[in-house]
Design a protein that fits this description.
CATH superfamily of the largest domain in chain B: P-loop containing nucleotide triphosphate hydrolases
Distance between the termini of chain A: 32 Å
CATH topology of the largest domain in chain B: Rossmann fold
CATH architecture of chain A: 3-Layer(aba) Sandwich
Number of helices of chain A: 3
CATH superfamily of chain A: Glutaredoxin
Number of helices of chain B: 18
Largest interface: A-B, 35 and 24 residues
CATH topology of chain A: Glutaredoxin
Helix content of chain A: 25-40%
Shape of chain B: rod-shaped
Structural class of chain B: alpha/beta
Strand order of the largest sheet of chain B: 5-4-7-8-3-9-10-11-12
Number of domains of chain A: 1
Order of helices and strands of chain A: EEHEHEEH
CATH class of chain A: Alpha Beta
Number of strands of chain A: 5
Radius of gyration of chain A: 13 Å
Oligomer: heterodimer
Strand content of chain B: 15-25%
Helix content of chain B: 40-55%
Strand order of the largest sheet of chain A: 1-3-2-4-5
Chain lengths: ~110, ~575
């Protein structure tokens, strides 16, 4: 899987710039778990953060040196870089409740 | 396939080893850790797991040209570098020179939310990247078990760990995995289940306030190994496991003899002193001169040009030098010439294994031919009896392997009874000299005898041991009907004997004179008698002549008158003459 940046900017992004979400998804190649994780993450983001998030997918097979920075062990891992504080969710994100708790979206909405 | 299996069996017979470079560990394991396989090092907190792992990597990189990866789950890179720098490992330098990669892996459980399935591919990627970046041959995973605290799903973790160890084997790296000691099992989370090739257990025990670290190879698949617990210590140059000795009794034996420095003692030992490379025990009660004998021995060795190492556990070197000076033994020149070296330490300073290791280090660096341990009994206080015997055995083995002659002094409390520890220790010794006090007549005198001397004819006699300004002298003790006499009693006895001899000599001389006198008197008497006889004989002859003459004259006169008278008077003259003649005879 190529590293790709998915940008979704909604028209209302300028109203709440502080709440812009920056997410990183760490994967190792196009494994079923990675694909599931990506689609799950995208689904949640679309429904909760439409237009104010950015998902960066990092393939560790291509850039293994990046694993150290975010202390990646488990794959797949989602790192919420923004808003602070940094939050980490591991797994294929099939458990939506846990994902929402992990991303701290449940309280936000 | 067949080819492959035969190859694997031949490999199993001679398992390739990966030398650790850690002093002693390679000897115990017969060459090192199993190459290309993971080794589990487990032990409680503070027993040196991390250090062992670091040393394995550092020595690998420095001595064996094998770069390594250190994956730290507990300490950060900076902490680790600082911690091992105190042991002389330049981890930071090795990292700069790309010999070692340190990867600090850390997950805070509270920061991690689990959602659905995952695996630890990230760890694999990191490890793989680290290994490939420097071409590492060695890997350390320092307390992998920390993951159990960070990751909530144990089932996934266990499956992944199993995969990890398999992956490490496939990768062909020699790995050391450290783990905490568990209560009922070797490790807290049962890692031994996954790492089955080699398991090393470290242990830290405190007995009577003295801590001892121990190392044991619990398991080593496909290789012979020492199964005992071996004490080890963390010294200035990292870990050293003891012993460094061979596991068998196959020392080279020398029949060379070396002098003791006391000629009379040499004479007691078959005239030529101790065997080179033998171990000698010198026991004695306090103040019997053990150190003096030892110092004499040291001096004799130095005079032969042999380096001598003197371990003193009671006195400071300067004190020994001063004291020996008082008996005319000058040690400072020998020290200045580099032939004699002192190593002094209080026995309670540290545990036995530390003493042993420092002794080994000293011996290894100084390379002496003669070693003196004064006294070995002080070390006994630093450990239990069995530990001590073990230690002395190791020391003796080590020294014998290097053909180093060793003199151990040993302090006994009682005057006669040999102590348990000594009896146990004496079996390790080749020669055993005993110094003892004899008390009596208000004085104390020292005696020395040879209790045993393997492989040589030796004197069975007690010698009195005299210490004077000129050094040591051994004198025959007086052994007679009144027992063993020493000191002034011996001198008195000797004087008494001398007097008795003198008296009898005088008596004999007098007798001789008497006889002489008698003989002379007799001689005189004889000569007197003889002269008497001679006078008488002369007288007799004279008388006989007179009688003869008279008879002749008379005869002539009678004949003349006979002629005048008639002839038959002649007959009467003869008959008259006969009795006269007989009387004269």
């Amino acid at each position: 899987m190529k590293t790709k940046t998915v940008r979704r900017r909604a028209s209302d992004s300028h109203r709440r710039p502080a709440k812009f979400w920056q997410l990183r998804l760490y994967v190792t190649g196009q494994t079923p778990k990675s694909l599931t994780a990506f689609s799950n993450l995208k689904k949640i983001c679309e429904s909760y953060l439409k237009g104010r998030y950015r998902i960066t997918v990092i393939d560790l097979l291509e850039q293994p040196q990046l694993a150290k920075g975010d202390q990646i062990l488990a794959i797949p891992t989602v790192v919420r870089k923004l808003p602070k504080p940094v939050r980490i969710i591991i797994g294929n994100l099939s458990d939506t409740d846990h994902l929402l708790v992990g991303l701290d979206l449940r309280l936000a909405d | 396939m067949k080819n492959n299996s035969s190859k694997s069996t031949s490999l199993a017979v001679r398992l390739p080893k990966c030398p650790t470079g850690i002093q002693g560990l390679d000897e115990i394991t017969g060459g090192g850790l199993p190459r290309g396989r993971p080794t589990l090092v487990c032990g409680g907190a503070g027993c040196g797991k991390t250090l062992l792992a670091v040393e394995f990597l550092v020595r690998g990189a420095v001595q064996f040209g094998e770069p390594g990866v250190f994956m730290a789950f507990e300490e950060t890179e900076a902490e680790l570098k600082a911690n091992v720098a105190s042991l002389g490992f330049d981890l930071a330098g090795l990292v700069r020179r790309k010999k070692i990669v340190i990867d600090y892996v850390h997950i805070e459980r509270s920061e991690v939310q689990e959602s659905g399935e995952y695996d630890l591919e990230g760890l694999f990627v990191r490890l793989n990247h680290a290994i490939d970046s420097i071409g590492a041959k060695r890997v350390v995973l320092d307390t992998l078990e920390a993951l159990f605290a960070s990751l909530p799903n144990e089932a996934i973790l266990r499956a992944e760990l199993r995969r990890l160890f398999r992956w490490l084997k496939e990768k062909g790296v020699t790995a050391v995995i450290t783990a905490e000691r568990g209560r009922d099992q070797l490790t807290r989370h049962g890692l031994e289940e996954y790492v089955s090739d080699c398991v090393i257990l470290l242990d830290h025990r405190v007995y009577e306030q003295i801590a001892t670290r121990n190392l044991r190879v619990v398991k080593y698949r496909g290789a012979l190994h020492g199964t005992n617990e071996f004490p080890f210590l963390i010294g200035a140059e990292g870990i050293s496991v003891l012993p460094i000795t061979s596991l068998g009794l196959n020392h080279k034996i020398s029949s060379e003899r070396i002098a003791t420095g006391i000629p009379r003692l040499d004479a007691m030992l078959g005239g030529r002193g101790f065997f080179r490379g033998s171990s000698i025990l010198l026991t004695g009660t306090p103040g019997t001169g053990k150190t003096i004998v030892a110092a004499n021995f040291a001096q004799a060795a130095c005079r032969r040009g042999e380096r001598t190492l003197f371990f003193s556990f009671e006195e400071s070197p300067n004190q020994i030098i001063r004291n020996m000076h008082s008996i005319g033994l000058r040690l400072e020149p020998l020290i200045k010439r580099g032939l004699l070296r002192f190593h002094a330490a209080r026995p309670s300073l540290y545990g036995l294994e530390m003493h042993l290791a420092t002794m080994f280090n000293e011996i290894a660096s100084f390379q002496p031919r003669v070693v003196i341990v004064d006294p070995i009994t002080s070390l006994m206080d630093a450990g239990t009896a069995s530990e001590c015997k073990g230690m002395v055995t190791r020391l003796v083995d080590y020294l014998k392997a290097g053909q180093v002659t060793t003199l151990f002094t040993s302090l006994t409390q009682d005057n006669h009874a040999l102590q348990q520890s000594e009896a146990a220790m004496s079996s390790l010794m080749d020669s055993w000299l005993l110094l003892q006090d004899f008390e009596g007549n208000g004085e104390r005198n020292r005696v020395l005898y040879v209790l045993k001397a393997r492989g040589m004819a030796h004197s069975n006699q007690i010698r009195e041991f005299l210490i004077s300004d000129h050094g040591i002298d051994l004198v025959d003790a007086y052994i007679g009907p009144s027992g063993v006499l020493t000191g002034s009693a011996r001198a008195a006895q000797e004087a008494l004997e001398k007097a008795a001899v003198l008296a009898s000599q005088q008596e004999a001389a007098q007798l001789k004179r008497e006889v002489e006198r008698k003989r002379a008197a007799l001689k005189r008497q004889i000569s007197g008698l003889r002269s008497d006889y001679e006078t008488e004989a002369v007288e007799l002859r004279r008388i006989a002549e007179q009688v003869g003459t008279r008879t002749f004259v008379l005869g002539t006169e009678q004949a003349a008158s006979g002629i005048l008278r008639q002839a038959d008077i002649k007959v009467a003259a003869i008959t008259q003459k006969k009795p006269r003649h007989g009387k004269g005879n």
